[in-house]
Structures are given as C-alpha cells and as structure tokens.
Amino acid sequence: MSRTIRIAAAQYDLTAPARFADWAARQEQWVAEAAGQGAELLVFPEYGAMELAALTGRGGDVQASFDAVSDLWDKANDVHRALAQGHGVTIVSGSGPQRRADRTFNVAHVFGPRGWVARFDKIMPTPWERDMGLSGGRDLMVFDTGGVKFGLVICYDIEFPLLARALAEAGAEVILAPSNTETEWGYWRVRTGAMARALENQCHVVQVPTVGAAAFAAVAMNVGAAGVFAPSDQGFPAGGVVALGEMNRPGWVHASLDLDLLAQVRESGSVQTLRHWPEQPGAGALPAARLIDIAAAG
Length: 298
Fold this sequence. Notes:
single chain, alpha/beta, Nitrilase/N-carbamoyl-D-aminoacid amidohydrolase, 8 helices, about 30% strand
C-alpha cells in the first residue's frame, strides 16, 4: 500500500463577519467540510486572516486593518488550535499582519492534531508590502506530521529558488505556497514559480489563493486558483498539474499525493534535478531550515 497524504487547498473568499463568533463558525464550516472529505492537511491562503479586521470596522485603512488583525491573533489561534485537535488534522491558517517589537510581519500559523502551533514569517515581502512597512522573516522550517514532511513559504517566497531548495534539502516532500494576488499576472507569477520549484526539487508544490472582491483596503481584489503541482515525470501528469481549481470560485481543491511515487522519481526518475543541483556552476551554501516534529509535539 502506497504512502499518501490528502491535501485540501482553500480558494478562500474574504467575508466581513459582524462578530468573532461568526468568523469562528465560518472556520469550523470550512474545516469540517475538508476533513469530512478525508483531508489530513488543510491550507488557507495568504492574507486569509484579513477578514478579522471587519470585527473592528477598520478594514478600510491598511495600517488600521493591520493593527486590528494583529490584536486578534491569540483569539484566532485558539480557534484553529481547537479545530485541528477536534478534527485530527493539520491546519495552516490564513496569514496576516502581526506587529512585534516595532516591526510588522506577514505571518501564518501551523496547528497539529495534538494542539501544537508554530509561527512562520514570510521571508520576502513584495514591493507593496515593503511600502506598507512589512519586514521579512529569516527562519525556514520543515514540518514532519509523521505522514509527510512539508515546507511552508508565502506567495512571493516561491519565486525565489533558494528558499524552496533549502526546504527540499531539509527533507520537504511537499512545499505549501499560500498566496494573495490581485491580478492574473500576479497569479501566474506565483503559479510559474510553484511549477518551477516542483521541477527543480522533485517535490509537490501547492498554491493556495484568496479569491474574489473584498471589503478591505489591503486586499480589495483577489485573483487565483488553487493548484497542486508535481515534477513532470513518469507516473505524474505530463504537465505536472495534479489538481487545479476553477478561477476565482470559492471552495476546497483536494488532491491525494502519492509520496512513494515521489520518492521513486527522486531516486530513479528520467531526470535527477534534486540530486544534481550541487553540480551547477555557482551552487553554494543554502539557508538553514529547521525540522519540526508535529507528531511528537503536544
């Protein structure tokens, strides 16, 4: 029997909840739906947390909405922690701004079925994020659920090959790329980066977008489709597209990933990009990536 992992990628539309209880109920609805279809790893998109700004009525101003979301992280994390435990799944929650020590980061959180949580700061802010005062993180992590090892980057990060390479070198079989893009050009930049990283590292890459118009200045328009990509080699789809959602339509996109097939392709595929990377001129030291054992954490 092959080793598989079932992933659910959210094409997530941003609503404007009136009360925190309404927001929490929506998270429960989304998670219950995906878990009910067998998903083990659930991924929400970049800036998926921005709808929390509606609770304070400050969504119309970028910096005020950043303040609002940052202030609500503890309450939001309690909700996702309980959902991961209650459904026995791993959740990557929607990212959002977090103020820390006079700096602001774009942060996603990872929750395991035993209640464990970790924080990941986006490494490479976009030009717009830099203009808005966001800083980049420096800590790369690979998470071991006991069933799969996955790395996490956020949107623009996937367009920088060394970050994904560091995750692959640290053991990542799947790289998650939550994203937020306001145009089709942006969507395709992230998608092209995701497919290239799948080829280079002989791994799966999962693009997870926000979709639709929203009542928030920071994320007023959101364009994209969730995609699950693989290396183009025998056993996988020829074009490397394992699953692809309908553009801009809210809902989950599911895929069951055959990790034994991935290991086989890495060992004896038609090409050996993972193994041969160090032979290219200019290849050098990579950023460090920590391995975190979710299965053992509680």
